[in-house]
Structures are given as C-alpha cells and as structure tokens.
Automatic annotation (TrEMBL):
Residue ranges of the TM segments: none
This protein's pathway: Pyrimidine metabolism; CTP biosynthesis via salvage pathway; CTP from cytidine: step 1/3; Pyrimidine metabolism; UMP biosynthesis via salvage pathway; UMP from uridine: step 1/1
Phosphoribulokinase/uridine kinase domain residues: 21-217
Biased composition (Polar residues): 293-311
Domain of life, per lineage: Eukaryota
Catalyzed reactions per annotation: cytidine + ATP = CMP + ADP + H(+); uridine + ATP = UMP + ADP + H(+)
Organism in which the protein naturally occurs: Papilio xuthus
Name this protein carries in UniProt: uridine/cytidine kinase
EC class name: transferase
Keywords, alphabetical: ATP-binding, Kinase, Nucleotide-binding, Transferase
Coiled coil regions in record: none
EC number: 2.7.1.48
GO terms under biological process: CTP salvage; UMP salvage
Family: Belongs to the uridine kinase family.
C-alpha cells in the first residue's frame, strides 16, 4: 500500500481541489449506510484499498461525544438519548469536514455500539478523495455542518420498516435485547426522530423514498458522481444557497416529483437533465433502458455488456 502522491489534489480531477461532499441523512435504519454502500459498489470503490479510493464514506456515529461516568451508566441501562443533537460532538465533525475540504488526510474514530463509546485504539485514515459521503441521522441538523455539503440526500423510509430493521440489527449487531431496543425506540429514538431528524428533510436536494431499493434514485446519484469524477467538473459552490431550496423526490413507481425552486443552481433538475442528456448522447446500440428498469428500448437492440458507465 502506498500513500497518495503529494500532488494528489492537483491531479484528482478538481480544478477547485475540493472534494465533493455529500450528506446522507434519514432516520435510524432507513438505509443510509446501505445507500452509501450501493453508491460505492456501483462506482467500483468498495474493494479498493483505502489509499486508492476516489469515493469514501464516513459515519456521523464516529462523532458521538465522550460520555460522563453518570451518562455512561445511563447508556448501559438504555436510558441515554443517543438521538438528541447534544449526544454528538458537532464541533469535531465540523473540524474534520473542513480538513477534508482542505484536502487533508484525516483520522476518523471507530464507534463501538457495544460499549457506547469511541474505540480507543481503532480509527480509520481517510485519504483525500474526489467524493466524500457523510451519513448520519443528524448530519443536516447543525447549520455549520449542513452548509458544507455540496449535495444533500435524505433517505426516506417509513417508520414501521425502520423499526422492523432496527430491532434485529440492534440485537444481532449491537448487543442489545428486545426489551432494551423497544424501550429505547419508544422513549428516545422515535420522539427525537420527529423533533430533530425529520424536520431536516426540507434541507435535502434529493429525497430517496425506500432507500437502497430505489434503483432509479441511486443510479441518478451515481451518474452525477461519475460525472464529477471523470468529467472533471468543478464542485459547485456551497454556503451561498446554490444547492438549497430545490427538492427532488425520486420515486420509481410514481415518476419523479419536484417541489421548491431556486434562482441558483437547481441541483435536482441538474441531476435529471444530466441523466437524460447522457441517455440521449449514447448511440442507439449503446442506449440503455431507462435507469433501474430492465426493459428493452423499443427499436433498439437489447442491452449487451457494459458501456463503461456505472449501472
Ligand atoms: N432496502 C433494504 N431492504 C432490506 N433490508 C435493508 C435495506 N436497506 C437496509 N437494510 C437493512 O436494514 C438495516 C439498517 O440499514 P442501514 O443501511 O444500516 O441503515 P442506517 O444506516 O440508516 O441506519 C441493516 O441491517 C440493513 O442490512
Ligand atoms: O451508543 C449508541 C450510539 C447510537 N445508538 C443509536 O444508533 C442510531 C444511529 O445509527 P443508525 O445507523 O443511523 O441507526 C441512533 O438512532 C441511536 O439510537 C445507540 O443505540 N447506541
């Protein structure tokens, strides 16, 4: 494994030398990590060495703050609110994101859900990359953090589905028992979702119903990232409102719905236009069926093999 060359940022495709930062919010077990995994897979990044990755993913859970001894006791009894903004060290998250945007290599701690704390000896080195995904329940809650994102996605999965996923996950992967999971859900997770997470949906540029099942949405996003990585498009500006005010709700079943408008860059419209023009640019032989829908295009041959673009 070799370190990236010192001039990496000068050659990684950005005139601005700034990684494209994507925030991925949504309720617990909505599929945020799974959506990020799918994006990484489709871009062929999942099995690359950390030093070679052009797209990386970070979890907001790595930025839970250190608990006091009494809070730690409450956490062990399932009586600590990990879904409240106060549970996070947002200043640390902000500082790390600023370092990432400045092209620095950063260390991101690993969170241990069994001990309810940051692992003292385990962290991940995040090397400069073209695209950085940050996923977490409250990534859009803190204004200074929110303003750093070039693109904001909200994974919108209904609460029954989320609870049905959270229960087995917390029991099998996070060392909880059923009673503890349900108590924590009713006392903290559900009310905090409604008070702090759900209201941040309005900040999203793209809302993804049903998470990773929504192949159209994932493909739209992957194509956008692909263009950023390979067409050397400079990252759009943030913190000036260019990405705000436009919402796209991508729904495979019912077509695409949009609401809101912006005088500036229309992130959602840009995604769709880009996808359509990509589609139209291909020769008839290369033309693929519409994203995520595996039917043939009338009058053109069946899809055969890879076109070199992500599918
Ligand atoms: N589309 C899906 N269909 C079935 N199970 C899913 C789907 N998306 C996620 N899961 C499962 O639900 C659980 C929570 O998903 P995850 O992506 O970790 O959610 P989050 O990151 O939002 O907490 C995991 O066990 C995951 O395997
Ligand atoms: O020590 C902890 C830390 C967090 N949680 C719960 O995790 C979720 C956030 O993670 P997701 O992967 O987005 O579900 C949050 O709802 C916390 O309740 C925990 O139980 N214990």
């Amino acid at each position: 494994m070799s370190e990236k060359p010192a001039d990496y940022l000068a050659t990684n495709g950005f005139e601005s030398k700034t990684p494209f930062l994507i925030g991925v919010a949504g309720g617990t077990a909505s599929g945020k990590s799974t959506v990020c995994q799918r994006i990484m897979e489709k871009l062929g990044q999942q099995h690359k060495e950390q030093t070679e990755r052009r797209v990386v993913c970070i979890s907001q859970d790595s930025f839970y703050r250190t608990l006091s001894p009494s809070e730690r006791l409450r956490a062990e009894r399932g009586q600590f609110n990990f879904d409240h903004p106060d549970a996070f060290d947002d200043k640390k998250l902000l500082a790390i994101l600023k370092d990432i945007l400045a092209g620095k290599k950063v260390e991101v701690p690993e969170y241990d859900y069994i001990t309810n704390s940051i692992s003292p000896h385990r962290s991940h080195t995040i090397y400069p990359a073209d695209v950085v995904l940050i996923e977490g329940i409250l990534v859009f809650y803190f204004p200074e953090v929110r303003e750093l994102f070039h693109m904001k996605l909200f994974v919108d999965t209904d609460s029954d589905t989320r609870l049905a996923r959270r229960v087995p996950r917390d029991i099998m992967e996070r060392g909880r028992d059923l009673e503890q999971v349900l108590n924590q859900y009713m006392n903290f997770v559900k009310p905090a979702f409604e008070e702090f997470c759900l209201p941040t949906k309005k900040f999203a540029d793209v809302i993804i119903p049903r998470g990773a099942d929504n192949l159209v949405a994932i493909d739209l996003i992957v194509h956008h990232i692909w263009d950023i990585m390979y067409k050397k498009r400079p990252a759009p500006k943030v913190a000036n409102g260019t990405c705000n005010g436009t919402h796209l709700e991508v729904d495979e079943g019912n077509g695409r719905r949009m609401s809101g408008s912006s005088e500036d860059t229309l992130m959602a419209i840009d995604l769709i236009v880009q996808h359509i023009s990509d589609y139209l640019r291909r020769s008839p032989v290369e033309k693929l069926p519409p994203l995520g829908i595996s039917t043939s295009v009338p009058g053109s041959p069946q899809r055969s093999g890879q076109s070199g673009r992500p599918h």
